[in-house]
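fyi for ur records
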Amino acid sequence: MIIIRFPDALGSQKLQSLSGKQKEIYEYLDRNLTMFEYETTSQLLFEIRLRENIVESAMKLKDSGVAFTSFTYSKFNPIYWTRVPSGYLLKPNVLPSTAINDIYSNGQEYGFECSTAMVVIFYKAVLDSIRLADFNHLFGGLLVWNWNYDSDLAIITLEGNEFIPGDVVYFMNPDFDKPIWRGENAVYLGNDLYFGHGVGIGTSDEMVKALNTLRKEGAVISAYMLQQHSRLNFKYLSQFSSK
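which gave:
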């Protein structure tokens, strides 16, 4: 359910003209049992745009050429990043926007696992949604790996299974063969489709079936989706909106 405390005519007109993925996201928000309350129509529009950008960033990462691999065999473009024990650190005097965009334009220079992919997707979507100067100010000194992320990215994890496009979910694989397959983080794209770096795009059943092929010999416990989801703090980020 959507509640806007101070709607305005221009914002309401923009809501009426939503189409495609943006309209789909609005409908997901509006029919959700959770109450989504916004101070202004602009806050709602920002969340819709950012969620759309998360979905688009996931699809672009799928086609970027970034490899799926563990930290042992990982790589980040050394022009922009330095490997440290806990991940990859942005080099001094490198703009965060330049480094994040490089992942998408030079994917062959990168290799990482699924949780890192989710954070990268979030960064790219935020970069495409807020003012460039604000992005570079907020995210200087990035350290990327696993769920390492800057606090200004403001990721929230909630219980429940009412997913909205742009949320990140987790498929658990208890009887995994190799540690890298202990589970799969995935962006919810809508209509029961998910993107997970390493598995690709599939329905929830297809994601489970894929993980079930990656279990140890004699495994008896099926993979399954956790009843939780992670999402950005859209209201916080909306103050930096580029529109």
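The chain has eight helices and 14 strands. thats all i got for now
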